[in-house]
Structures are given as C-alpha cells and as structure tokens.
C-alpha cells in the first residue's frame, strides 16, 4: 500500500533522513523510553478501526474516521525539519493534510481559542502505559492561530507509506517550528476549547517544558543548551549544527508571537 | 569451600581481568565497524562507555563488602577494576568532547558550569583522575600508605556523583539509572554497616 501526496512549496529542499532512521529512533513513551523501544514494541497497536472524537466548541462534533479527516485526494507531501527538545534533529517527508482543513470541516465556534489533542490510552497494546511514567493520556495543545497555520498538518504517512506505528499511526500532528514533543502521536481526540490546555510535559515539569515549546536557541532547557543540536545521520564525527530560531520557520511563524516574551512563554 | 574459592581466585592472573575488562570496548569497536550501533551511533558510543565505567565503579566498590560478608577476596583485582573504570570514564568524556559536542569548547565550558548533571559527571571524573595516576606501587610508597588510602577515599564521593550524573540526564524516572544510584548507595552503606569481617568468614583453627 502506498500513499502519495502532492508536493508542497512549504517543503524544505534539505535531504530527508532515511526511512530506517526515521522509524528506528523515536520518542513515543507509550511504547517505552528507549529510542528503539517504539520500533520494537509498537507493532501490537491496532490502528484499524480508528476513530477521532472531535468535540468542544465546534459546530459539527462527532466521531471521525482517518479517511474523513485526511482523504487520499487531499494528501500533500511536506518535507519538514524536526528538532527534538533533546537537541537532535532530522528531516522527515511527511504525508498529510493541513490541520486547518480538518478544523474547517468541524467548524470552530467563535469562543474557541485553543485546540487540545489526546493520544490513545490502551495499555494492553501500549506497553509503556503500564507504568505511570507520564500521566496518560498524552495531551498536547495549540493556540487556534497556530493550529490554523498552513505549516501545521495532521500526518497519516511518511515516505509514501502509511504512518508506521512507532511514528504515531494512524494519524498524528506535525508542527515543524516547535520541539518534537508538541507533535502528538496516535490522536483519538481533538477538543476545541477556550482554555489553554495543560500539555503532558508541562504538567510533569513546568520549569523545563512550556506550552509553546517553540524552537529557540536563546532559551535553554534548564539541563542542557538549545543553541546547537546533533544531526541524526551525520555519523560519528558529524559534530553539531546551530539551532535556528523557530527551527528555521521564523519567516512564516514569528509574527504570531510578536510582542510576547519568549523567555517567559517558552 | 571458602578456602577453595579463594585458592582458585589466587590462581587467576591479574592480566586476565584486564583482558576481560577490555571486552566491552572490543564489542563496541566491533559494533562501530559493523554498523551495529543503530540510528544514533554517537549517543550509543557515549552512553555505552559511560555505563561500562559505572559498572566497573560499582564492581570496585563491591570488593570490600564482598570480602567482609562472604570472605571471598577479590582484593588482588581491585586495582585493575578501578583503572578499567577510569579508562572507560576517560573514553566516555572523550566521546562527549569530540563526538557529541563536536569540540565546541565554549558551549562545553558554559554547559559544565550551568548544568548540574555535567558538573556532577565532570566532578566525578576529575576526582578519579588522581586515583588513576596514583594506582601504582611507586605512588603508594611515595605517598605512604595512610595518605594514599585517604586520597583513594575520594571514590566514595565520585561514585554517587557519577550515578546521579546518569539519573539527571533522563526526562522521566527510568528504572535503570535509579537502580544504579540505589546500588552504589547500598554498596557504600554496606561499608558502614558491616565494618569488619563477619565471624563466619574467618578460617577456623584446626
């Protein structure tokens, strides 16, 4: 089964990491805390049937299938940089649809200011959830303008293949100017709300992980510098690369944060 | 029984420990050249060297409690265990400097001062340095037994620092680093709780 997406002008021209790299180096604590645990453990996940409940401040709440949200004829390829909060990076050719198109389907109401996302909780298939290392379900959120931004997508595949389980099958968020943990995987619920969602990592350690989590070389993680990162695939002596503001997407997204103190809203 | 164990241990030449101790490094080299390190070889090299150093550190700290509790003596091998620990720690630091940080000295300097986990790790390494340098008979003679012993008590500080250094790097409480912190603290407390050889470890007079 192949999944194809139209090329997009929003793609980077950088060379993507290999499929092997992208699918064997994952942070998906639902399947274990090691980078290779998801590749080893995620095969147990049932991704079909799958339903995404959309509720809250929307005109058309309900239970949607993956195909409803990301129909084949709407798929685009988005080759994006990914910058992990742990100071490493990859380039990934996602297949997906703009989140804005999904939100348009369900009709956000005027009072809606934030979008909250939730990952599946199914400990019998997700071995990492059998320990309370995080407060399951994994929760993430975006401000509505961030969610509506053309760069923000819901991805259902990568490298012309259906989304591998370890990468967040069958449908996940991708927000390329934010640290990777914002891009929540295996989504089962999307809620439009008027209150800022409390995302999982912020809830665990608010001094280290904020709500915005915009890539920012000037604001360090308390335990490590965010000024540079390692490039996965660069080899043993690849060295480090300088991290760019908003992961290099500043031209497109910086205006959304005009006037905000990014040291406070990290 | 105890005598038999110790007699056979006495027949093991110390270089055997060196040889066994080099195995993890050989395996690492093997994995480097066969591409067995996975997607992020830098982290794998760095972390494996660090973990191995900690294992030898715990091993060295286990020698005395083992002797006091069971009478089994690995004393002859302790110096080799300690120096192996230092060698892996040095390789771990080198991997961090060259591979992980790519020789960005400025960032490394700032990071060590700002990040407690790096300060702990580097502190443990710096404390082990004089221990490694003086781990020879000449140094013992020059320093005198008392001063030498006092100096080598630094390991009691270096060991928990090294274990905390690992624990502090993870994002959630992972079981393995927690286990090693507990193990090191347990080995250190054993020295305080069991201060002299247990009666059953002493050879009975005929």
UniProtKB/TrEMBL annotation, chain B:
The topology of this chain with respect to the membrane is: Multi-pass membrane protein
The cofactor remark states: Binds 1 FMN per subunit. Binds 1 heme b (iron(II)-protoporphyrin IX) group per subunit.
This protein's record includes keyword Heme = yes
Name the keywords, alphabetized: Cell membrane, Electron transport, Flavoprotein, FMN, Heme, Iron, Membrane, Metal-binding, Transmembrane, Transmembrane helix, Transport
Its annotated compartments are: Cell membrane; Membrane
Query: What sections of the protein cross the membrane?
Result: 12-33, 53-69, 81-105, 117-139, 151-169, 175-194
A Pfam family for this UniProt protein? Ferric_reduct
Query: Which co-factors does it depend on?
Result: FMN; heme b
Q: Where is the Ferric oxidoreductase domain?
A: 50-162
Assigned protein family: Belongs to the MsrQ family.
State the oligomer form and interacting partners.
Answer: Heterodimer of a catalytic subunit (MsrP) and a heme-binding subunit (MsrQ).
Please describe what this protein does: Part of the MsrPQ system that repairs oxidized periplasmic proteins containing methionine sulfoxide residues (Met-O), using respiratory chain electrons. Thus protects these proteins from oxidative-stress damage caused by reactive species of oxygen and chlorine generated by the host defense mechanisms. MsrPQ is essential for the maintenance of envelope integrity under bleach stress, rescuing a wide series of structurally unrelated periplasmic proteins from methionine oxidation.
Q: PANTHER family attached here?
A: PROTEIN-METHIONINE-SULFOXIDE REDUCTASE HEME-BINDING SUBUNIT MSRQ (PTHR36964:SF1)
Q: What is this protein called?
A: Protein-methionine-sulfoxide reductase heme-binding subunit MsrQ
**Source organism of the structure:** Paracoccus nototheniae
The organism's taxonomy opens as: Bacteria, Pseudomonadati, Pseudomonadota, Alphaproteobacteria, Rhodobacterales
Q: Write the gene name.
A: msrQ
